[in-house]
Amino acid sequence: MAASGVKRPPRPAPASSGGMVRKLILALAVFLPALVYQQLQPPPPKICGSPGGPPVTGTRTQLKDGRHLAYLESGVPKDQAKYKIIFVHGFDSCRYDALPISPELAQELGIYQLSFDRPGYAESDPNPASTEKSIALDVEELADNLQLGPKFYLMGFSMGGEIMWSCLKHISHRLAGVAILGPVGNYWWSGLPSNVSWHAWNQQLPQDKWAVWVSHHLPWLTYWWNSQKLFPASSVIAYNPALLSEEDKLIMPKFAFRTYMPQIRQQGEYGCLHRDMTVGFGKWSWSPLELEDPFAGGEGKVHLWHGAEDLIVPVSLSRYLSEKLPWVVYHELPKSGHMFPLADGMADTIVKSLLLGDQPPQAS
Fold this sequence. Notes:
Mean pLDDT: 90
Shape: globular
Strand content: 5-15%
Radius of gyration: 26 Å
């Protein structure tokens, strides 16, 4: 009992349920967007040579903007070469995946080959501002840093093949000839008839349609889409065997069991794989169908190669481009899949066609 004359303190009024609900909604309104934003953001890259990042083990050159590109030289010494070639690797690959030109052919013709890690791959610094144009300018600056001279040959495979169109657009004055191998296509390039792009689109597995659609329309969602577990993400990233043609199944062991594979994604998947997708399938301000012959004077050629049984990159876009660009020398391999450049002897066939103008029989 309270002492006489001492008043009890007033009891606090019970909080209304409505007030509690409003506070809960306010808390969720603050917390949930922050949580969603955190889930959508890719982790920062582990840049080679930085504290906590992978070590630098290869030879690198520094670009004007401060980024580094790691590169690999093969073939004859540069100062003895008659032909200088830069090779641009494909998706989930690196500088070690250069076209396997035989040493015998390299010696016979005097071929020097320069391959490099594209930004974000292996030991090349990522480029957070990469575009379809920036990689072409990287190729040109790499050639200048390595003193390849005023002109050089260029070859690119798969996603690197798509980059060849950008090089033809932006640095054609530096090119002596180009080989485009199994190039990825952008289904939204202007000038592509809807029936052509739709047919090519429907050659993909359903999960790849979604992954590509997200890369084009919602690029900020690409990292989350390819790392979440609710829906099937890119089957190319997952190495789905359903993407392999019969010939690819025989060739794939050469590619799938590379000893250097852990290096390829070591800086983080966003700066290489996901950036590749958002740029390659992004919104381009121009289309390869708008290009004019870069070698109208006859001083070089553009060769386009594609396997008719390619289950990774539909052949139909390459067919259409070659029909509409009469200056492109088109080679379709009727029994080959996506990995045809690794088939025995195929690299030498491609190189001789590019350098010597040979027109080999159209066979796998």
